[in-house]
């Protein structure tokens, strides 16, 4: 009789799927061999596995060759280093562990298959995040762009944008230039709607995503104060150089500028000092100090702290102070800033 060695195939469930109990069933198929029998063994780290193994009777095909299959049910967390081996009369080589190609099932004439295969690992879950408009776009343009980023998503994923319950646009995601496993979808909206705090949703769906992923983005308004500090009593009594201070607290995003004017004329930047941004959680603060002469203060010169931030309707906000502002104290000038993109909910 002619001896024909088996071709060994790996049988896997749909990549990434497991039962509700966290177990998976993998299989081996020995095909087109002769004569019978062929014997399967399963091992984990070279230890024989006998539990949850089921080997089916061999089948004689019309071409006179046999087919044999065996399956193993095991916890998904224990799938590493699982080997399926087949022993047959035709084997003239020792069993060897082989790396499999990037397909879930591939034939080989070797006698060992290892699980899991490269390329058939459990896929990463789809993650949805946002890229907010750039500060320059918000400051300078009437239209801003929101970008919905889908990581680990199929390239034909469907993306729908809504503003609250109002449908805005639908379409397929486009490949991202920054990562091969990312697709993106963009939505253009008016700058006024964005800075006004309207809520937008990015809804990601695909046949491979059991439940559509719905994420929201908006600019959350809040009260964030700016304090203008007058010269101290000690400085005023000394009648020498005086200090005006401008403190801007709890703003975001971090892009901001602070300048000073005197009688509506811009003061040279060498005359004042702005501190580095101070970060507190997701908010920022900054501090600016301006040195002036006691004589100019006594003459009633008007000094202004000018703050530029993307949220202001006119992009800058100016508040003035002079000698008539009162006794040295904290002068609370309430500015309304807005938080940056709210974290994906």
UniProtKB/TrEMBL annotation:
Residues 6-101, 123-218, 225-322 form the Ig-like domain. Keywords: Glycoprotein, Immunoglobulin domain. The keyword Glycoprotein applies. It comes from the Eukaryota. InterPro entries: Ig-like_dom (IPR007110), Ig-like_dom_sf (IPR036179), Ig-like_fold (IPR013783), Ig/MHC_CS (IPR003006), Ig_C1-set (IPR003597), Immune_Resp_Modulators (IPR050380). This is Ig-like domain-containing protein. It comes from Callorhinchus milii (Ghost shark). The lineage of its organism: Eukaryota, Metazoa, Chordata, Craniata, Vertebrata.
């Amino acid at each position: 009789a002619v001896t024909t060695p088996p071709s060994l195939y790996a049988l896997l469930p749909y990549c990434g799927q497991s039962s509700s109990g966290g177990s998976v069933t993998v299989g081996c198929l020995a095909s087109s061999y002769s004569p019978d029998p062929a014997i399967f063994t399963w091992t984990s780290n070279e230890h024989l596995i006998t539990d949850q193994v089921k080997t089916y009777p061999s089948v004689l095909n019309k071409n006179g060759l046999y087919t044999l299959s065996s399956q193993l049910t095991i916890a998904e967390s224990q799938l590493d280093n699982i080997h399926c081996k087949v022993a047959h009369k035709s084997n003239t080589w020792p069993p060897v562990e082989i790396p499999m190609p990037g397909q879930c099932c591939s034939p080989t004439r070797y006698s060992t298959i290892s699980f899991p295969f490269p390329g058939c690992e459990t896929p990463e879950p789809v993650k949805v995040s946002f890229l907010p408009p750039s500060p320059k776009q918000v400051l300078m343009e009437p239209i801003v762009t929101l970008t919905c980023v889908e990581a680990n998503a199929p390239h034909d994923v469907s993306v729908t944008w809504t503003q609250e319950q109002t449908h805005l646009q639908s379409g397929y995601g486009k490949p991202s230039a920054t990562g091969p496993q990312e697709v993106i979808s963009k939505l253009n909206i008016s700058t006024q709607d964005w800075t006004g705090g309207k809520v937008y949703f990015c809804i990601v769906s695909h046949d491979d995503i059991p439940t559509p992923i719905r994420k929201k983005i908006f600019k959350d308004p809040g009260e964030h104060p700016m304090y203008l500090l007058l010269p101290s009593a000690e400085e005023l009594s000394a009648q020498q150089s005086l200090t005006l201070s401008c403190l801007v607290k709890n703003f975001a995003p971090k892009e901001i500028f602070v300048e000073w004017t005197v009688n509506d004329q811009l003061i040279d930047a060498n005359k004042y000092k702005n501190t580095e941004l101070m970060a507190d959680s997701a908010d920022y603060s900054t501090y600016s100090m301006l040195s002036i002469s006691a004589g100019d203060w006594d003459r009633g010169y008007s000094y202004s702290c000018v703050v530029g931030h993307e949220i202001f309707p006119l992009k800058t906000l100016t508040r003035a102070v002079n000698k008539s502002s009162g006794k040295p104290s904290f002068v609370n000038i309430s500015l309304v800033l807005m938080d940056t993109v709210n974290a994906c909910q």
